[in-house]
Amino acid sequence: MKTLIAQANDPALHQAEDLTGLLFSTPKDLRHKAEEVLGQLFVPIEVLSAGEESADIVLRPSGLGEIHVHAERERHWYPYQVTRVDTVVR
User: Fold this and answer.
1) Among candidates 2, 31, 13, which has minimal Cα distance to 67?
2) Are 83 and 56 in contact (CB under 8 A)?
3) Which residues pair with 5 in a beta bridge?
């Protein structure tokens, strides 16, 4: 399987970067916000890991590559904040 990280001139990467800085409390909450930002009706998600202080979630919007979302929070009762997104094309 061939995996490529999207290049800087990829329009999907620019859309995904709009997710940076978003606050969310649950993966479902992130999915709803991603649907708004990406302009899609439904965005499937996969939670790779979710701990008290960080989370790694994969968004799979149709027509775009996978979007790997990395989020952190200072305390376990604070909402997560998206710190980095990576767009992967398979």
Assistant:
1) 13
2) no
3) 88
Kindly report the pTM of this predicted structure: 0.83
Both tokens of 83, joined, read 């710190």
Q: How far apart are CA 5 and CA 86, in angstroms?
A: 7
Residue 41, exposed/middle/buried by CB under 10 A (0-12, 13-18, 19+)?
A: exposed
- Partner residues linked to 4 by β-bridges: 89
Cα dihedral sign, 76-17-61-90: negative
Q: Among 11-15, 45-49, 62-66, which stretch is predicted with the lowest mean pLDDT?
A: 11-15
Cβ pair 1, 58 in contact under 8 A: no
Residue 78: pLDDT above 60? yes
Q: How far is CA 54 from the centre of its chain?
A: 13
